[in-house]
Specification:
Helix content is about 30%, strand content about 25%. The chain has about 375 residues and is of the alpha+beta class. α3 packs across α4 (about 45-55), α4 packs antiparallel against α5 (about 60-70) and α12 packs across α13 (about 335-350).
Length: about 375
């Protein structure tokens, strides 16, 4: 077996404790419903675009604080600092990095900075602490790539910085033993699999339009398939080429609600899904091309479901203390029925945690989500 000579680590959620767990603590302190912050920055189209601008330095933290606070309906003063209160060093990973470095393995960090100020020095400090970076890194934005190159050189680090489409990887240095993504993807780009040598690994955050997120570790096989387990929860900026601009509600329902929708009842409160980052990931993996909106309605919430093809929609009313919840569905897809079936499947399996979930990416590009057994799956 070839001896590995380098280890590259991300910051948030790798060298630190869980980012979704940190966000959950923020929701509790601010009196927000569970999952509110992560939905605002990952599912809400305006919030996701604003967070992407923060990560590439197009807005300052101060501007992001104010605008995201307005989306959440709270004071934006020092918002990012308040969100990150519960983010702490992950001692076991730091110990592993130190052990690797002591064994002669070059250790580095490849991470983003949030905004143009005031914390943009974190990546440089961590790189200095953990050692040299030996990596090919691809960035689609020429200005960001140039700034990264300059900053790295200024710190005495000289990795190969390529301005290009990260979804297409970098064929010049392929095949790779490891491909590490520091943005989330809804689908693993085929180029990443093709640029990995047999036995190579792809470590990437995955997400869905519906919500949720996790890190997967896939091994690429001789037959061109990539298969592996979910390792932990995660929340990352989405790959630019896989972002989605959601149509307005009028595109689905030009007249008054409920239009031609069929009525039914369900015993599943949609808030059970909304409160659980893992449930959102599982449902979104099993129910393709569906996104949600959530609107306050009296003491409860109305969940809206839409398909990306603009053919189907559904609403579910969550009323505190109710035993059943009103459902309306319109279009060729019964979106709530699909969502509930996926949730019940997870429920019947005992609501397994991340460690029992897995993903297979076939040579033809199909994505199969599975629990325990790769041969029993949902096709995405």
């Amino acid at each position: 077996m070839t001896r590995r000579t380098g280890l590259i680590l991300d910051f948030g959620g790798v060298l630190t404790t869980s980012v979704p767990g940190c966000a959950a603590g923020f929701d509790r302190r601010e009196g927000l419903p569970p999952g509110t912050f992560l939905r605002a920055i990952a599912v809400n189209p305006e919030g996701a675009a604003l967070y992407a601008d923060l990560e590439r330095g197009a807005v300052t933290q101060t501007e992001w604080n104010e605008r995201t606070g307005a989306l959440l309906g709270i004071d934006g003063t020092d918002l990012l600092g308040r969100v990150l209160v519960d983010l702490h060093p992950e001692a076991s990973v730091i110990a592993a990095a130190r052990a690797a470095r002591a064994a002669g393995i070059k250790v580095g960090i490849l991470s983003n900075s949030l905004g143009m100020e005031p914390y943009d020095y974190n990546a440089g400090l961590l790189a200095h602490r953990l050692g040299d970076a030996n990596v090919v890194t691809v960035e689609v934005d020429a200005a960001v790539a140039g700034a990264a190159r300059t900053a790295l050189h200024g710190a005495g680090l000289h990795p190969t910085v390529v301005k290009g489409d990260g979804a297409q990887g970098n064929w010049d240095r392929a095949p790779y033993d490891r491909i590490l993504a520091t943005c989330s993807v809804r689908r693993i780009p085929r180029a990443w699999v093709e640029q990995s040598r047999a036995g190579g690994e792809i470590v990437a955050p995955v997400t869905t339009l519906f919500g949720g997120g996790a890190v997967v570790r896939l091994t690429v096989n001789e037959d061109g398939n990539a298969r592996g387990n979910v390792t932990r929860d995660a929340a990352f900026m989405r790959l630019r080429q896989q972002r989605f601009t959601a149509p307005g509600t009028d595109a689905y329902l030009p007249g008054d609600w409920p239009g031609d929708a069929e009525q039914s009842m369900t015993s599943l409160d949609p808030e059970e899904i909304g409160e659980n980052w893992l449930a959102q990931l599982l449902v979104g993996s099993c129910v393709p091309d569906v996104f949600t909106r959530r609107a306050k309605e009296g003491d409860g919430w109305t969940w809206w479901l839409f398909d990306t093809a603009v053919t189907s929609w559904a609403t579910v009313d969550s009323v505190p203390g109710a035993a059943e919840f009103d459902v309306r569905q319109s279009g060729p897809r019964r979106l709530w029925d699909e969502v509930e079936a996926a949730y019940r499947w997870w429920e019947e399996k005992g609501k397994p945690g991340y460690e029992r979930l897995g993903l297979t990416v076939t040579a033809s590009g199909e994505h199969h989500t599975w629990i325990d057994d790769p041969s029993t799956f949902w096709t995405l």
